[in-house]
Design a protein that fits this description.
Layout lengths: L1 H19 L3 H10 L12 H10 L6 H13 L4 H14 L22 H16 L3 E5 L6 H11 L4 E6 L7 H15 L10 H8 L4 E6 L13 H9 L8 E6 L14 E4 L5 H14 L11 H7 L4 H10 L5 H7 L1 H5 L7 H16 L4 H10 L8 H7 L5 H10 L3 E4 L2 E4 L1 H12 L2 H20 L9 H13 L3 H8 L3 H7 L10 H14 L7 H14 L4 H13 L6 H14 L2 H12 L4 H17 L3 H15 L6 H13 L3 H15 L6 H13 L3 H15 L6 H13 L3 H15 L6 H13 L3 H15 L6 H13 L3 H14 L3 H17 L3 H14 L3 H15 L4 H17 L3 H19 L1 H11 L6 H17 L3 H14 L6 H14 L3 H12 L8 H14 L2 H14 L2 H14 L3 H15 L3 H14 L2 H8 L9 H14 L7 H8 L5 H4 L4 H7 L9 H4 L2 E2 L1 H4 L5 E2 L8
Parallel strand pairs: 1-4, 1-5, 2-3, 3-4
Antiparallel strand pairs: 6-7, 8-9
Helix pairs in contact: 1-3, 1-5, 4-11, 6-7, 8-9, 8-22, 11-12, 11-13, 13-16, 16-20, 17-19, 17-20, 18-21, 21-22, 22-23, 22-25, 23-25, 25-26, 26-27, 27-28, 28-29, 28-30, 29-30, 30-31, 31-32, 32-33, 32-34, 33-34, 34-35, 34-36, 35-36, 36-37, 36-38, 37-38, 38-39, 38-40, 39-40, 40-41, 41-42, 42-43, ...
């Protein structure tokens, strides 16, 4: 068998080489590059040379194997070469003649190196016979997934392959189906008419031995790796017993392992080439372009690792050597070189490729660069005609050769596609010139319009082309041309779009879908759902007259039969935005003629909210009363009665409201739950001074509730009224009565907690604690007593029994009925332990909590707390903290949690390994994060870490990139603030202030507050009258009341008018609620006036969110120390220092001042940023302490 295989190998190679290299000089050149000795043989005919080389060995020599590797990359579908390689596979399987396999330590990693051949063999032989119907090959972009599948096509002669090409960008199910139908019609004998169920035809096609190949499948997945839900359902129905066909998915993003059908498909990773095979491939690329001397042999392995073992990166690198030598290329992205021996991140490799492409483009002609930018708008591969259209000067052959030779353009048979990184670079450049980008889209549109103008045009056979022509015509403002062809796809809309179909998040995709639906529905549609969906699309875009057009679509939908309540409700909402109260009421009358009574109740109730919002209280009440009347006797109208009574009470008709509530109570009878009506009526009675009647009504409600309904809420309300009139004993007695009535079946924890509070307020803390313990015992296994544990711990701490308080919290955490409460109690107990100096015990308790909770979100909080405490320890504990957080990432199922944990890890790595490792982790971690507010925090931390190491330029680069990526999201304000922070750390406070003033003008009014705050504090430190005037002008134009008041507060502080500052800030807090920044200034001002007790009370309201933790910890510590309670400040000071306090520090009365003085090098605001001056009245020192803005750095 093996001997026959060798014969096949020789014949196949001879045939291939004879066809591929016909000229003897050409063969000699190839042999020379492959370093195959041909001494004294050059006079022989070419075929004889090859024949002698092949016959001289019993295995393919290493040099020839290297040559074949490159030849195979360039000619994956050549049948003669395929025959030779199949013979190699046969030799590999022959057995006895094969050399012994390498030791395990020498084997290639799964999916890399030699395992590629094994994967290819499995795909070609075992998968069609015994494997599942679907296989997904996943790996980095450029790692060779498409090439591997091309090899499979060439080898699997007994199967037909049908390609489905996914355009770049998030793909809708509808667009995917159009592409699938085009592929089926062109690749099979099936006839798939418009409006048909394309998946059903695909299911039929897969009964035959075909393979559907879907490249770039990541565009059918969301950010979490979940595919389109319709595909998940479809793939789950495929059975190998019924379907000979197979589906091959190629993805640059990993599949979410938790999708329901993950265990029913084969997922195969394709990893980077190992150093040895990567070195051979790179060497061959270099030789073929005559640049082998550019990379010394001793540096080859480093270069392979630097390039991530990625074949696409090899090509780009080889081409870029024309522009610059190796060391200069390394200097373009030094971080990647420094980290070459670590696992290469996708983000870092992509950044490196981008820099190399930019270098290569410097060597390309102007015509070549222009063509590349024009072609960069294409989302799919294209034929030569696209390049002809892109080059009106007629040099397309030269351009084609130039781009291909530089690996910027790739060819597969008669199709071309830009190198993805080159495409990204070109697209970024052309996007800066809107007119040029529009021309490029017009050119691409012309290319895709050709089949639509042909006499033989067939809409179903050109569905994928329609997706592209739609995209390019929309972006080139040729909507009229699109309207003419969109009608042919209207039937598909009804099949694949439902009333509840998701709205595209990408603005371009949203506009494309609007244009498609507008054109398809221009002649009307019998489906109200399509009109409704178009209205949703228009409202989501919300540009120009979109609301008016949405109203028209909804009017068309509601005029059709079988229009459901959801459509009427949206119609009402849009009418409320565009018109007045009368039109809303008229629409309800219109709906009443066509919808069931049960729906009109819902519609009238929603309409009531809308008219009330527009000031039509009377009309709102009338609508609610109409809904009550329409509902009839069997309908639960308690909610309608309650809402109508609320409106009556708001317009000061309390008597009428109470009367209506009593009527609602009577209407509810025993069948419906009227407890809310009893409560509302009692409150109104109490508000008008009739407390006895209110309590009497609540007792009536308690009796009416009987044994069937839980009356604990009524007991608590009645007890509250009794306590408010000074009858605390009666209130406690009633609550005890409620506890007895609740029995074991109902949750009486609220009654226990309220009774304990009243007992504590009258000074009977021991009785309160005893009652809470009784409630804890009574809750048993049925009810959650976490609140009782928490309240008991608070009372125990108040009387100085910290040990017992912690024990109660522990008990509550272990007995909690849900993970939320358990987590809260574990964290509170651990915080108490840590504040008392029991850090190790606190860590142990948090680990216990981690093992106990099952909800991942809560486990994240426990991991983070434990890691924070570990980070205060020695180097080994810092390592433990990193490991703990990494384990938590593995179980995290949400972008927010993963990014938050990455940020924590990065902070620790920055301390342990330096900034580059930490920043690389952050930038890599956010690549697949779709929600801007999650990614922005990681960019901010990356800049902060770089600033802490005085890497100003790199921090600026990171922030500039982040701002460009997230410019349309409100959280970009955080990045602008960070950018200003870099300027201020470099000493240029005036430039920082002016940068923020300019950035503020680019944001919507509601998103400017953060920038205004940062601007004011920087100007507060600078104390430059000219800059302050600019800030005042900015605030005057903004209409930002909060910022205006903060600026006035700071001005009062500068004049030592502390009482006025506290009053101004306090007035706004009392009027508009708690704001951390303004409240901080109020507390500080109160301390300076000597109002210590009020300052302590307000400071206690600070939440220790990460955004305000620094301010909250320092301000709480300062407040307690100035107020004479330094013992309670130690925990807050430890948080400021991020470690435990020493004995000397605990005895240091000015530790809070020393912490204030130390301004960290990063950009995160610190106490001195908010309070740049500590007046002597606060510190007791002889002079004020001031931290002023330094002069700009030279």
């Amino acid at each position: 068998m093996a001997r026959s295989a060798w014969q096949n190998l020789r014949q196949g190679l001879e045939g291939f080489l004879a066809a591929r290299y016909r000229d003897r000089d050409e063969i000699a050149r190839v042999l020379h590059h492959a370093e195959i000795p041909v001494t004294n043989r050059t006079d022989l005919a070419p075929l004889v040379v090859w024949h002698q080389i092949i016959r001289s060995v019993e295995r393919v020599p290493a040099q020839l194997a290297d040559l074949l590797l490159v030849v195979e990359y360039e000619n994956p579908d050549d049948p003669l070469l395929v025959a030779a390689l199949e013979a190699v596979d046969e030799l590999d399987r022959a057995g006895p003649e094969d050399p012994a396999p390498p030791a395990p330590a020498e084997r290639a990693a799964p999916g890399s190196g030699g395992d590629r051949a094994a994967l290819l063999t499995w795909l070609a032989t075992e998968w069609p016979r015994t494997g599942p119907c679907v296989c997904l090959v996943e790996g980095f972009p450029g790692v060779g997934k498409t090439h591997l599948s091309d090899q499979l096509v060439a080898r699997a002669k007994d199967r037909k392959f049908i390609d489905v090409e996914i355009p770049e960008g998030q793909t809708s199910f509808h667009d995917l189906m159009l592409a699938v139908r085009q592929a089926l019609l062109r690749g099979t004998d099936l006839s798939v008419p418009p409006g048909a169920d394309i998946l059903q035809f695909l299911r039929i096609a897969l009964r035959e031995p075909i393979t559907i190949r879907i490249d770039d499948f990541q565009y059918c997945m969301d950010a979490h790796g979940d595919p389109l839900p319709e595909l998940v359902e479809f793939f789950s129905t495929l059975k190998p017993a019924r379907h000979q066909g197979r589906v091959l998915l190629l993805s640059a993003r990993a599949l979410n392992e938790e999708v329901p059908w993950h265990d029913k498909i084969e997922v195969r990773p394709l990893k980077a080439l190992d150093t040895a095979e990567g070195g051979r491939l790179l060497t061959t690329f270099l030789r073929n372009l005559g640049r082998a001397d550019e990379v010394p042999p001793e540096r080859l392995d480093d270069v392979v690792e630097w390039l991530g073992g990625n074949p696409r990166a090899f090509k780009i690198f080889t081409s870029s050597l024309k522009a610059a030598p190796l060391d200069e290329l390394i200097g373009a992205e030094p971080q990647a070189w420094e980290l070459r021996h670590r696992r290469t991140s996708e983000a870092l490799l992509k950044r490196l490729e981008r820099e190399l492409v930019k270098r290569t483009l410097l060597t390309v002609s102007d015509e070549g660069r222009d063509a590349l930018m024009t072609l960069s708008v294409h989302r799919r591969s294209f034929k030569r005609e696209a390049l002809i259209l892109a080059d009106p000067r007629g040099r397309h052959e030269d351009i084609l050769r130039e781009l291909v030779d530089n690996f910027l353009l790739e060819r597969r048979q008669s199709w071309y596609s830009l190198n993805p990184v080159a495409k990204e670079v070109g697209f970024a450049q052309i996007s800066h010139d809107q007119q040029r980008a529009r021309r490029a889209h017009r050119t691409a549109g012309e290319y895709y319009l050709r089949p639509f103008r042909a006499k033989s045009f067939n809409a179903p056979r050109n569905g994928a082309d329609f997706i592209e022509v739609r995209h390019h015509l929309v972006l080139s403002n040729q909507v009229r041309a699109l309207n003419k062809i969109a009608q042919d796809y209207a039937l598909d809309l009804e099949k694949y779009y439902k009333r509840t179909s998701p709205i595209p998040s990408d603005p371009t995709a949203l506009t494309e879908t609007i244009v498609l639906f507008t054109a398809a529905l221009s002649g009307g549609s019998p489906s109200p759902d399509l009109h409704y969906y178009l209205a949703r699309l228009l409202l989501a875009r919300d540009e120009g007259e979109d609301s008016v057009k949405a109203s028209e679509e909804l009017a068309a939908a509601t005029a059709l039969p079988s229009c459901v309540a959801d459509i009427w409700l949206l119609h009402l909402k849009v009418i409320a935005e565009l018109r007045g109260v009368a039109e809303i009421v008229a629409t309800v009358e219109q709906a009443a003629l066509s919808v069931p009574d049960t729906d009109i109740v819902t519609i009238a109730a929603e309409a009531a909210k809308l008219v009330v919002a527009k000031g039509g209280v009377d009309e709102g009440v009338a609508l609610l009363l109409r809904a009550i009347e329409t509902a009839g006797a069997g309908y639960d109208t308690t909610g309608l009665y309650g809402e109508a009574a609320r409106l009556l009470a708001e317009r000061a008709d309390a008597d009428e409201a109470i009367s209506l509530l009593r009527k609602g109570i009577d209407a509810a009878g025993a069948e419906h739950d009227a407890r809310s009506l009893y409560r509302d009526a009692a409150r109104l009675l109490a508000e008008r001074g009739d407390g006895d009647a209110a309590i009497s009504l609540l007792r009536q409600g308690i009796d009416a509730a009987g044994a069937e309904r839980d009356a604990t809420g009524l007991y608590r309300e009645a007890a509250r009224l009794l306590a408010e009139r000074g009858d605390g004993d009666a209130a406690i007695s009633l609550l005890r009565q409620g506890i007895d009535a609740a029995g074991a079946e109902r949750d009486a924890t609220g009654l226990y907690r309220e009774a304990a509070r009243l007992l504590a307020e009258r000074g009977d803390g021991d009785a309160a604690i005893s009652l809470l313990r009784k409630g804890i015992d009574a809750a048993g296994a049925e009810h959650d007593a976490a609140g009782l544990h928490r309240e008991a711990a608070r009372l125990l701490r108040a009387r100085g029994d910290d040990d017992e308080a912690i024990a109660v919290l522990r008990q509550g955490a272990e007995a909690a009925k849900n993970d939320y409460e358990a987590t809260s109690l574990y964290r509170e107990a651990a915080r108490s332990l840590a504040q008392r100096g029991g850090r190790e015990e606190a860590i142990s308790l948090l680990r216990q909590g981690i093992a106990a909770v099952t909800v991942r979100a809560h486990a994240v909080d426990l991991h983070r707390d434990a890691a924070r405490l570990l980070a205060h320890g020695d180097a080994a504990q810092v390592d433990d903290a990193v490991a703990l957080l990494r384990r938590c990432i593995e179980i995290s199922d949400h972008d927010h949690h993963s990014v938050t944990l990455l940020r924590d890890i990065a902070r620790l790595l920055a301390r342990r390994d330096g900034p580059d490792v930490a920043v690389d982790l952050l930038l890599h971690g956010v690549q697949d994060v779709t929600e801007s507010h999650h990614a922005v925090g990681a960019y901010y931390d990356a800049a902060e870490i770089l600033m802490e190491h005085r890497r100003f330029a790199r921090a600026t680069e990171v922030l500039t990139e982040a701002i460009a990526r997230h410019a349309d999201h409100p959280t970009v304000a955080m990045l602008y603030s960070a950018r200003a922070g870099v300027l201020s750390k470099q000493g240029d406070f005036a430039a920082a202030v002016r940068f923020l003033i300019g950035a503020s003008a680019t944001l919507a009014h509601q998103h400017r507050e953060r920038l205004h705050t940062h601007t004011m504090f920087l100007a507060h430190q600078l104390r430059d009258p000219a800059v302050s005037a600019e800030v005042a002008a900015m605030l005057a134009d903004s209409g930002d009341e909060l910022s205006r008041v903060l600026w006035e507060t700071l001005a009062m502080q500068n004049q030592d008018r502390w009482a006025d500052a506290a009053r101004i800030a306090g007035d706004l807090r009392r009027a508009h609620g708690f704001n951390a920044t303004l409240a901080g200034q109020e507390v500080f001002s109160l301390l300076c006036t000597g109002e210590h007790a009020e300052a302590v009370e307000i400071a206690a309201n600070f939440t220790h969110r990460e955004a305000t933790a620094e301010l909250a910890n320092w301000l709480n510590a300062t407040t307690l120390i100035v107020a004479g309670r330094p013992d309670l400040a130690h925990g807050f000071l430890a948080e400021c220092l991020r470690r435990e306090l020493t004995a000397a520090e605990k005895d240091n009365p000015l530790l809070w001042v020393q912490i204030w003085k130390v301004v960290p090098p990063g950009i995160q605001p610190h106490p001195a940023f908010y309070f740049p001056r500590l007046p002597r009245v606060l510190t007791g020192l002889d002079t004020d302490l001031v931290i002023s803005a330094p002069p700009p750095a030279a």
